[in-house]
Amino acid sequence: MKKQGFIKGSAILLSSVVVAKSLGLAYKIPLTRLLGGSAMGHYSSAFSLFTPVIAIAAAGIPSAMARLTAENFALERFENVKKLKRTALVTFTLTGLVFTLLVLLCAMPVSQLLTGERKVGLAVCALAPSILICSVMAVYRGYYEGLRNMYPTAVSEVVETLFRLILGLAFAYGVRDHALQSFALKGECFGQKCSSLQQALGVSAVYETAAALLATSLSSLIACIYIMLASKLGGDGITMQMRQKDRITDSTGGIVRELFACCLPISLAALITTLTGMIDMLTVARGVSAAYQQQPQAFGELTDLGVSPKELPNFVYGSYTGLAFAVAGLVPTLTAMLGKSALAPVAEGAAKGDRYCVGRSMDKMFMLCSFIAFPSAVMLCVFPKQILTLLFSGRTAEIAASCPALRVLGIAVAAMSLSLPCFTLLQALGKGRRVTGIILLGGAIKLTGNLVLIRLPAFSLTGAAISTAVSEAIICGVSLVSVYRASGARCSVKSAFVKPAYAAVLALMTAVISREILSKRVFIGFGEQSIALISIFLSGIMYLFSAAILCETPKSTIISSFCKKNRKST
User: How far apart are CA 420 and CA 144, in angstroms?
Assistant: First the structure.
């Protein structure tokens, strides 16, 4: 079987993420416009309650499967690789079923307890089936990632996002249409009498949210069916001759224990990672409410735009999570795929004791992460309002609430973009427990920052973003040190971090200077959005030019890889 190298695997995963995130934006933008800030608060609350469960049930499966598959493949234990897959499918199907039933039973009372909104439990119930589905799909994805075949993961993610776009919008708009017709004919909405159209839309929003999340479960099911069929029809490249080389396999109980030993630290780390969302859910709305009571005039811009004091806390929370944090999370999702691509070669190198292979893979990964993360962070810091307006035009109040937060989150983007791949590498090196400690440290800092800053009227709208930026910066620094200590490999700090950062500084200066020049009266007719787009374009050119001069860019890495192939073939 011809395995994909790090560069090719990264290219496949990055391409799939770009497509998936583009489709995700095409879904999230109209959904946000339909639901509005308050209903997006319910949407985010449902996800905040759901993500800890999915983290425990399925988050550790892909990395554990990829690591164990890569190690067994490197040692040519091909029969054990096949048994590992069979055992994992049975094991995680059962655990996924148990967690699904628990969520269905507990969704309503837990939602009432933590959010004060029992109806949020309806949205959580709509998400519950995806626990079982994602548990099964995660086994297949991790298995093929361990074999250095990124196509099943990449294609299944695109399929999942595409059907979430189609079904999610169809379901949400279908519910809205039903609610409007019911109000027009009977003056009620879902069995509740409504005195105005605004009240009817408020009642309908909860059901629209649940419908959109039910589509998420259905899209996961479609992607799972795809990857199962692809596995059945396409195979995995392990032939009977390869399996005959070593017929000795580990016991089923031993494989189960090994799977859980690998999964549990990762799942625990993922669970703690979701604490950021839980912390925001439990503190942002309450903190904003306290800040409004102290100094109502600090929120004058939002109240002038029609946000009532009663809706303000949930509106700010929904705007922060639905707009600012959603946009900030796009880049770390890209770099996390680089960690997935590096997992198999790092795990294989560690299994063989090849530090050079481990170090080379890590340096390539960090260089690519820096190349993506640093300029993206610069753009979010300089043009937050223009980016939000471009994506969510028409939602003036939501943009006003989330714009200051996105400017600060731009700083957090660079840190998150490096720390997420670090977590994957620590898991590949068998140091998953360190991830738990690192995230706990960051969670404590985040919680402290939220409790202190959000209640202050001067910081309320940006307090959550500031605490996120500080905690992510500390997490990033500790993670980088831990990765290189665990691997024993030497770090090329200058090439991987310093030079891309310097190029990003030049891009920042270009963006600021070009914006100032274009804003002068000399260029009459240039709108704010046009100025932002031109400035971003010019800063991008500066970044690419300076990165090409200062450091080894991804392009030169790919070229060198092809040159090596050509030399081998001659």
Answer: 21
CB-based contact 396:524 (threshold 8 Å): no
- Please state the domain extents for the chain: 37-234+248-273, 300-491
Which residue type does 300 have?
G
CA 322 to chain centre: 13
Q: In the numeric block, which tokens belong to residue 310?
A: 């009663």
Q: How far apart are CA 285 and CA 314, in angstroms?
A: 5
Q: Taking the model in full, what pTM does it have?
A: 0.67
- Among residues 421, 353, 72, which one has the least CA distance to residue 236? 72
d(CA 367, CA 495): 7
- Condensed to tens digits (0 to 9), the pLDDT of residues 20-63 reads 878 877 887 787 777 665 566 667 777 777 777 888 888 888 88
The tens digit of pLDDT for each residue in 514-564 reads 888 887 755 555 677 788 888 888 888 988 888 777 765 445 544 444 444
| Nearest alpha carbon to residue 322 among 50, 108, 47 | 47
Provide long-range contacts, Cβ within 8 A and 24+ apart, for 239-247.
242/76, 242/78, 243/78, 243/79, 243/82, 245/76, 245/78, 246/76, 246/77, 246/78, 246/79, 246/80, 247/79
